[in-house]
Structure formats: structure tokens, C-alpha cells
Specification:
By secondary structure, this protein is α+β, with helices and mostly antiparallel strands. It has a single domain, classed as Phage tail assembly chaperone gp13-like (rbstp2171). A two-stranded antiparallel ribbon has the order 1-2. A hairpin with a 2-residue loop joins strand 1 and strand 2. The chain starts with 5 loop residues before the first helix and ends with a helix. The C terminus is likely disordered.
Length: 121
């Protein structure tokens, strides 16, 4: 009987099909519930390719990268994108930075599975 491969164990333990959600409230009213699947290397590459096409470079620490993560990854409960590329100017100019950061921080936490965080401590 063949031994299970490491890749199969990792895919089962850290499935990218598992969505997390994060509700955003203002004054006790639910404004939107954002759903995410974990960020993959392929997602990161797609985000960087978009930034390069728009002359923003590959600055993963930049707010442009964070904003592009929101555009690429934020979904509704049915898996439909919450934002499109055409929303970027409005997200940049008309939405407070604090709101964008509230949207992106739960996704950043998804980049490192909880089990791994426990092992680091």
C-alpha cells in the first residue's frame, strides 16, 4: 500500500476551498460581509502582474498590493467578487483607509493558518 504523499496531506489539511468570512459593521448595522479563500502563490502572482501592468511594481508591502488583494479576493457568500478593477479609484479616494485595512486584516490572518501560528509561539 503506497504511503500518502506530503502534498496530499497539505492539501487536505489546508484546503483553499475553505472560506472565512468577516462582517463589517457601522453603528451596529451590518454593512457587508466579506468572504475570503486563503491567498495562494498563484493569487499573489496575479496581483503582482496586475500591479506591474498598472506601473505599481512589485511592492508587496504597499497599500496598492493590499488594495489589489481586496479587489481580487473579497467575495460575497455566493463566491461573486465584491469589487471590480473599476472600483479601485473609488476605493482609493472615497473609502477611508481604516475601512480598507479592516477589510484586508482578516485576509492577512488567513495567510498563516492558526495551527502554524500556534507552532510559532
Amino acid at each position: 500500500m503506497p504511503t500518502e504523499r506530503a502534498i496530499d496531506k497539505l492539501k487536505r489539511a489546508f484546503s483553499i476551498a475553505n472560506k472565512s468570512s468577516y462582517p463589517i459593521y457601522k453603528d451596529g448595522e451590518l454593512i457587508v460581509k466579506v468572504y475570503w479563500t486563503p491567498l495562494t502563490i498563484a493569487d499573489r502572482d496575479a496581483i503582482n502582474a496586475t500591479l506591474i501592468r498598472t506601473n505599481k511594481g512589485q511592492e508587496e508591502g504597499s497599500l496598492d498590493f493590499a488594495l489589489q488583494v481586496v479587489i481580487n479576493k473579497a467575495e460575497d457568500e455566493n463566491g461573486q467578487k465584491l469589487f471590480i478593477e473599476a472600483d479601485k479609484p473609488s476605493l482609493r479616494r472615497e473609502i477611508p483607509l481604516a475601512v480598507i485595512l479592516v477589510v484586508i486584516f482578516p485576509e492577512i490572518a488567513l495567510w498563516m493558518p492558526e495551527q502554524m501560528i500556534k507552532n510559532i509561539n
